[in-house]
Amino acid sequence: ALIAERIAVIVPNVGRAYGAEAVLDFRPGYPVTANDSGRAAFAAQVAAEVAGEVDTETPPIMGGEDFSYMLNARPGAFIFLGNGDSARLHHPEYDFDDALIPVGCSYWVRLVETAMPAA
């Protein structure tokens, strides 16, 4: 709460210092990131077509995610593309496996091809 209070004081003062008006639009927290069950099943089906067996059991996580706003507007699915036995994303030891880029690209292409077949 202290940080939010300080930011609310600093923002308008920085604006005034530059002869402008700065308005803070602070919205604490994010909505829950909740998958649509049908879209999640579709995403898992496509992933299995591309990569074989997929693990769809993911424990709940507490991280905030911008994608939750999109899922509030349209049904969809937030997915994880595996990266092997590496530190988790945003960890200083995280090492993205570049060899997985073709697999990820193939997944997204197949997802679009399946969702939007050619007329």
Produce the secondary structure layout.
Elements: H1 2-17, H2 37-51, H3 67-73, H4 101-115
Structural description of this entry:
The chain is built from four helices and no strands. The protein has 119 residues and is mainly alpha-helical. The radius of gyration is 20 Å and the shape is elongated. The termini are far apart. The longest helix has 16 residues, at 2-17. It has two domains: 1-28, no CATH class; 31-115, no CATH class.
Query: How many alpha or pi helices?
Result: 4
Mass-distribution shape: elongated
Distance between the termini: 54 Å
Total beta strand runs:
0
Find the structural class using helix and strand composition: mainly alpha
Provide key terms for this protein.
mainly alpha; 119 residues; single chain; 4 helices
Quick take:
With 119 residues, the chain is mainly α. It is 45% helix and 0% strand.
